[in-house]
Amino acid sequence: MNKRFTLSIAKIVEETKGIKTFTFKHKLDAKPGQFIMLTDFEGGEKPFSISDCTEDEFSITVKKIGEFTARLFQKRIEDYVSIRGAYGSSFFISKNKVLLVGGGYAIPTFYFLSKILLKNKADITLINGARTKEEHIFADRFQKLNIKVINATNDGSFGEKGTVVNVAKKLIEDENFDFLYASGPEMMMKTLQKVCGEIEYEFLFERYMKCAIGICGNCTMDPLGLRLCVEGPVLPKKKIKLLTEFGKYHRDASGERIKY
Ligand SMILES: Cc1cc2nc3c(=O)[nH]c(=O)nc-3n(C[C@H](O)[C@H](O)[C@H](O)COP(=O)(O)OP(=O)(O)OC[C@H]3O[C@@H](n4cnc5c(N)ncnc54)[C@H](O)[C@@H]3O)c2cc1C
Ligand code: FES
Question: For ligand 1, is residue 150 a contact (CB within 6 Å)?
Fold first, then answer.
């Protein structure tokens, strides 16, 4: 797992102006929810969730945010990067009626998850949200899967108008789901938690990661000291309910607390 692989980029898809999917021809031993660490040999190494993984290739979907991701956006097909992983915990694979709630660059991990859930014969409803139509991604890909998809945007420019939490709340009131999965901004998941009621759930968390192998301690969550790179990034309801820092603060590269 800690072995490093130097890979050339096989395919690049521009999902929206600020989000690209990079595909690599490589047999990655990965499960939905896990992530890789990637470096471009020019400084820094960053975590990215796996958005698809087949027998002989895998993909990551990246939002351009700062220096590292801007450099990644300059890459062309056949350029080299180096990866290690896959790391971290993965999603529980249900065979029942499940609800997937997510948005933005965090939704692609549900593409990989949906494909595995379908193999397990789960009955899937997905809420795929974004702020606007321009920022909404993967709608076409999810549509090709045998799942129920509800697209939503905050401004109503694509799909239902409203946040994914608004849409989820209504669905949870009207239907019985056995399990819920969430991936997206932490404050979205904090609000979502309040409408989950008795449903069992797992959320995918992001914290600043450096080593990704449980040594540096930068990705821990209070008060359990859970290392999100090892015990996470996917956490179950019983652990999430004990996290006092959930929705309150996270840490920057130096470990200093940053309030949400
Ligand atoms: C488990 C996990 C999975 C992720 N999956 C994805 C994904 O699928 N697609 C995607 O676009 N992004 C993903 N991220 C976030 C991604 O790692 C950051 O967007 C990226 O590191 C930003 O680097 P930058 O230099 O461009 O931006 P910077 O300007 O350095 O940072 C911008 C912001 O990105 C975050 N960030 C920066 N460095 C790290 C780091 N080492 N670890 C965690 N967060 C960091 C911080 O919130 C920071 O404020 C994931 C993060 C984690 C922890
Ligand atoms: S990133 Fe170092 S312990 Fe998790």
Answer: no
